[in-house]
Structure formats: structure tokens, C-alpha cells
Amino acid sequence: MRAVLGEDQPIAREGIASILRKAGINVVAAMDNAVDLVRSAEDHKPDVVITDIRMPPKLAADGLWAAQEIRARRPGTPVIVLSQFLDASYALDLVGDDPSGIGYLLKEKVASPRILTEAVERVVAGGSALDPDVISLLVGRKRKDDPLGALTPKEREVLALMAEGHSNAGIARRLVVTVPAVERHVTGIFMKLDLKQTGSGQHRRVLAVLRYLQR
Fold it and tell me: Which one of 32, 36, 81, 107 is CB 3.0 to 4.6 Å from 8, fit for a cystine?
């Protein structure tokens, strides 16, 4: 697997690159600004792009711009954006209309190599890897006449894991229950939230949940 990395802080850049290399991922380029990151992704056509959200030249959300630009130029390119900020709007902007191959993680979580490498595996496989804290923020938001209030505690757990990008089998492993049990919870969630289920892929299910949470 080949990766292009975007990170302007040398120590953080080398730390992330080291985690990736130890997992058998070849870091073919490591850039310190968003413009060069986009160019590098075009040149190398990597299996995954990993970038910090705050980068030169503007030191704003340039990494997010770069991720979106890379996806626009080469649709389907798996990207993971790392952020220091718990801001659900960044994650939703990144997802757009297609969460497949998208990851958004809080930077502090990268201290755990397993979290980053699992996220890479999921997005490269066409799934999504959205930070649990961001999803908790969306799920916990108060809404007027909120249908989320009709969900059982277990359904809320399943909803959050769905939004993170986990499959039914993945949710079953996390909650130590059977896959049929998860399927029953998912059916109940979609009915209570008046969301249409689709058999056209995991990412469409995630998108339906995220659109609801965004409202």
C-alpha cells in the first residue's frame, strides 16, 4: 500500500510516517503544504492520502481543501483528514455526498497506531472512518421534536457506530452481540428516524445517517 502524507510539523510528520511504515505502508511522499500535497497526490496516485487539516499556505483548513481537491481530480481516492479540533462541520464538509473512502480523526487519537492503521484499512476498502467523538457530538445534539428520543440506548449505540462507518458485522463485534441482533436494531432505527434503507452499499447507509444527524 502506498501513501502520501501532508503535515507541516516535522516531528508530527515523521511520527505519522513511522506508524505507517511499521504497518507495512510505503510513504511515497510527505509534504508540508496543501498545494504540494495536491500535486504529489496527482503525481504518485497513492492508495491513500493522509493530511493534517491545518497547513500552509494559509494555516487554516487547507488540508481539508486539499483532500476535497484530490477527490475532485481523482474521484474515489481514499483520504483521511486529521484535526486538532472537535468540529463536526469539518467532517460533514469532507464527506459531502459520498462517505466512501473518507476518514476524519482527531489528531490526538493518532498516538494509538492501531486507530490510524485500522482507519487506513477501512477507507482503502471503500468504507469510512469517522471519529467517535465527532459522531457523539452529532448524536448528542438537542433538536426540537427530536425522533432520537424514541431510540433505545442500544439503538443509539448502533446509530453512532453506523455513522462512524462500521458494518453490521463490525458493530456486532464491538457490542458483542449477533449480526441478526444488530440488523434488528438497524431496522428499528431506520423506521423511527423515517430513513429509507438501501441495499446499494455500506456508504449509502452511512450517508443517510449523517444527513439525518446534520439536520
Answer: 32
Task: Say if CB 129 and CB 123 are below 8 A apart.
Answer: yes
All structural domains of the chain, each given as residue ranges with its CATH number in brackets, are 2-130 (3.40.50.2300), 136-214 (1.10.10.10)
Cell 474515489 found at: 76
Question: Which residue bears the cell 500535497?
Answer: 37
Provide the whole-model pTM.
0.77
Cα separation, 124 vs 108, whole angstroms: 22
Residues 119/129, Cβ–Cβ less than 8 Å? yes
Contact 33, 57 (CB under 8 A): yes
Rounded Cα distance between 149 and 156, Å, is 9
92-130, pLDDT tens digit by residue? 888 877 788 999 999 988 888 999 999 999 999 988 888
CA distance 103 to 197: 23
What share of the chain in percent tops pLDDT 70?
91
